[in-house]
Amino acid sequence: MKKLSKNNWKALMLLIIAVTLASCNQHNKSTSSSKYTCPMHPEIVKNEQGTCPICFMDLVPMHNNADMKVAKDVEELLENVNQVIVSDVKTIYPRKTALSDTIILNGKVSYDTRKQYAIASTVNGRIEKLYVKYNFQPIRIGQKIMDIYSQDLVSAQQDILFLQKNGDKELLNQAIQKLRLLGATQSQINTLLSNKQIMYSFPVYSRYNGYLSDFKPLAKDMDSESLPLQTVQGMYVYAGETVFRIYDNSSLWGEFSVAAEDMKTVKEQNKILLDNKAYPIISYIPYFKENGNFATIKINLSKENYQVGKLLTATVISSAKEGIWIPEKAIFNKGTSSVVFVKQGKNLRPKEVIPDGHKSKNMIGIKSGITENDRIAENASYLIDSEGTIVHQ
To answer: Which portions of this protein are annotated as coiled-coil regions (predicted)?
Structure first.
């Protein structure tokens, strides 16, 4: 072996000392920065080895996360589960097109309540006899409906006969006017003046053509026929009380119920299609109730083609709406907002969207939130856990 010179030995010794010092410094740095924790209770952190004060397990060194590197293939798996979903569910692209919707409406034929007339008692009295037997019985002008006894009518007739006998024409005219206001016709007054016989039962005649009914709540029973009358002989009635109603059937109504989600479309169209004929909507009445919102619409119908009580099925075809359309099942409704799941790489991320209120069969129009270039999950319900909670970006 070749003998080292004095200078070479000096250089070698300096190198060994430098390496030794660097190693010691690194060891001291690692040792001074080491911390220990319990595997079962990570909240326990100490600067030196020992045992956990809770479970008495040996403490283990804590790793410095800054020195750890995660492979890109598994980095996505470590993200918040409420912000990203790793799934291979079927995805689709939104459609940018113009679509229209066909809405089915169910209803029935009913009477036109604008042609509803009331037969009211003009006096306090008792019904002596009825000449009608059942609800919705056909009635015509001048047909006798009932006979009524009233002490007011009897007293008014007695006054007329007394004044006629005494020849007081001024008071007689006033008494005749009073009897007329109590419901007597001019023909009945003339008969009284000529025969001089008091009528104890006054007949009541119809002034209208149509169908007679004595129902108080009519809405749900308009199509019920041959039902017994609630008004019976011997019943006492009061002045001004409506005893019967008469419905003129010269025109009829078609009444339809509209669900809350279809109200906007039906109102915009303002017409419906029934038996291949378009009918304008003459009445649109929205109702807001605890069990849901809906609307009732009405159209005019001809009595030659329809009968009261007949069930009807009509359609409303909306105008084609240009925009972004996605399947209804692709949206998850959170109550106050709606989200879809957008494909980003291998992941699906929830993104809020705002529907524009238009539908076409199983498609929904989107106002904002996504474009036709965004790839979304076809069925959002597959991506919701049992708690249904999503925190989106």
So the answer is: none
| β-sheet bridge partners, residue 115 | none
Residue of 81, 95, 87, 80 whose CA lies nearest to 381? 87
Is the Cα dihedral 359, 362, 363, 364 positive or negative? positive
Cα–Cα distance for residue pair 328/334, rounded to 1 Å:
14
Q: What is the DSSP string of 125-183?
A: EEEEEES--BTTEEE-TT-EEEEEE-HHHHHHHHHHHHHHHHT-HHHHHHHHHHHHHTT
Q: Which long-range contacts (CB under 8 A, 24 or more apart) does 172-181 make?
A: 179/153, 181/122
Query: Model-level pTM?
Result: 0.50
Residue range 274-295: average pLDDT? Answer: 84
C-beta separation of 54 from 342 below 8 A: no
Common-topology check for domains 85-98+321-383 and 102-112+251-317: no
* CATH architecture of the region 102-112+251-317: Beta Barrel (2.40)
Q: Backbone phi, then psi, for 378, in 5-degree steps?
A: -70, -35
- Name which of 217, 244, 236, 214 is nearest 227 in CA terms: 214
Distance CA 371, CA 381 (A): 21
Four-residue CA torsion sign, 301, 304, 307, 308: positive
Q: How many CB atoms lie within 10 A of CB 7?
A: 8
The pLDDT value recorded for residue 65 is: 56
Q: Give the chain's mean pLDDT.
A: 80
Q: Where are the domains of the chain?
A: 6-62, 85-98+321-383, 102-112+251-317, 118-247
Tokens 């919102």 label which residue?
293
| Residue 108 and residue 255 in contact, taking contact as beta carbons nearer than 8 Å | yes
